[in-house]
Amino acid sequence: MKIVVLEGSPNKNGSSNLLADCFRQGAEEAGHSVEIVDTAHADIHPCTGCIHCGYEGPCVQKDDVEAVRKTILAADMLVFVTPLYYYGMSAQLKTMIDRFCAFNSSLQRKHMKSALLTAAWNSDDWTFEALEAHYKTLVRYLNLEDIGMVLGYGCGTPSMTQHSQYPQQAYSLGNRLK
Ligand SMILES: Cc1cc2nc3c(=O)[nH]c(=O)nc-3n(C[C@H](O)[C@H](O)[C@H](O)COP(=O)(O)O)c2cc1C
């Protein structure tokens, strides 16, 4: 299976990317190919809402999204990776998702598999309620098939994350993919 991982953290060596690396290792060892897209450092501009694309067609903006679009539409699985920012996904990842606008129907038709990998400082049981609800709504709307979520409670720093159960969870999620 071809897997695209959309990373959304400004911290290249941060906690959420650490989970992404573990997921990648597990998936590659299970024979899948994984392409990482660092949405936080790519040239990805916010959707202007012009709807020139008509929700399916060329976007008027010329940036890295055209290449990301091709990568996503050639893949079988989409993995969303984000730090928890004010109880939602990072603006960096959301900016990429808003640009799905120009290939919305193609995405819905593909029925891709998906997963969510995320890290937060907080460890209260409600920490990921809003993000989880948003992710599940995206899964429903985009006709994705959720394969699993790694919700990194108490992962405030890379060291905290390293010493938690979540890197192993991310590895296992990748490794048990069919
Ligand atoms: C702008 C900002 C907002 C944050 N909001 C939350 C939050 O709402 N809840 C929480 O538990 N942690 C919050 N955090 C902490 C991060 O989610 C946490 O440190 C995470 O490990 C960062 O991941 P990264 O290393 O991949 O960037 C926030 C951090 C920043 C910089």
TrEMBL record:
The keyword Lipid biosynthesis does not apply. Gene3D superfamilies: 3.40.50.360. One of its GO terms (molecular function) is oxidoreductase activity. Residues 1-111 form the NADPH-dependent FMN reductase-like domain. It comes from the Bacteria. Keywords: Flavoprotein, FMN. The keyword Cell inner membrane does not apply. This is Flavodoxin family protein. The lineage of its organism: Bacteria, Bacillati, Bacillota, Clostridia, Eubacteriales.
